[in-house]
């Protein structure tokens, strides 16, 4: 039997002695506990003071229970089935291995006596002994997904649908399902179709997808998830459910279900795993049938730090300096899905305080920030970025965030707002940082006014990070090594990131594991280029912007571009050279 943690603070002491918390954090945690009556565990994990796996390991040491991360262990489905899924959910425990006559069981709470009694009873009934391990909540949730794969769940529901509607799919080319269209209305309202849509959405959220694509594919319906920027086919469904699934999603997003000739956009909010998650819905008619894309807008509980976004070293120094300025234009550029909104969200979080009035205009509102006045534009009723910006200027703002500058009127108003003492943040669609200036001028902004107000331009992209759990040193082609050395040799030595030695370069990759789905990558981070506008640059912009002069001034200031930033992150072991080349090659092709 597992003993309870003693009433003094051995857990905190171990965290402190192992360097996982600082002395001030130690006392701050105790003070918070006394003030709130929350558990030490809740305070530490909610405030993200310690990595969840490190915390579980230390907690195991205190309880004298071995720690394991289930994501590092190959698990067989037959082992999982020893413990029914409802018990696994109720008691947050997993049977992850069977060795001879012994069950190996992971528990999130090894002190939960009801859980211990349940597994002991099950073990005795089947002549097993039990060995206990402590696991983190993240590890448990990962293992829980192994009970039901997407294909299994949808397959079961499809069986219900076929039985209910007497539909028999055929793989023979040219044959159609005659009954399907006649029963479409009933099918849309039926439990099977609702279940299929729910399962597809839930698995996408659990798999950390950013988008769901549901599209017709000949005599089938294909579902794809975009994970870490890459589209993956997740499941292929029978053709007869495609229209019903599209219509069900339309109903959920309050779109017109009888309008299939024009694109439609909508939004919905669902509660998944005790979290409210927003989805942006876009439909488009294809030849014969419609396609739908669902963008998952899962707001993080906390804004990412600059370092978590990928701004380190010289770039972090520039950003911190620029965010202290009282007025001016702060621009983030890049294509859709490059992380622009997240960067602005983090900037607003840094700027947010009781002493300033922050107002935003967004389309749509992707992140909700306490203390910030957020508005969503509605162009169909005349509430555009331009008209909204005029109204915001009468709201006594200190800081204004405009989701995107799309036209000359909005550009002119943004420059005017920056000129009259406001700090204005916004985004543009350009391929690189320099391209933001001619883009602004093309929209009709006066060059001398732009030169006076522009403070910072960030251009960014998102690249996949190497999976921490299967990362290993790796040899890459000699020509790639030469390219990395050549490009980073052009960066001023004082701006190379700490720890980089061009004479001792090491490269890494992920070999593939359960944690990353055998891809070698897990999560994404930004690469970028920053232009902090100095007086010489202001003069060049005001004098009708000579691109060559501007580029020369940039180099004299120590500017390094997106590819160079990416290669520095390669040498830090954050990503692979292959990934940086893939992303930057896309931009070179556009240019």
UniProtKB/TrEMBL annotation:
Belongs to the GSP E family. One of its GO terms (cellular component) is plasma membrane. The keyword Nucleotide-binding applies. It holds the Pfam family MshEN. GO terms for molecular function: ATP binding; ATP hydrolysis activity. This is Bacterial type II secretion system protein E domain-containing protein. Residues 393-407 form the Bacterial type II secretion system protein E domain. PROSITE patterns: T2SP_E. SUPFAM superfamilies: EspE N-terminal domain-like, P-loop containing nucleoside triphosphate hydrolases. It comes from Candidatus Komeilibacteria bacterium CG_4_10_14_0_8_um_filter_37_78. InterPro entries: P-loop_NTPase, T2SS/T4SS_dom, T2SS_E_N_sf, T2SS_GspE_N.
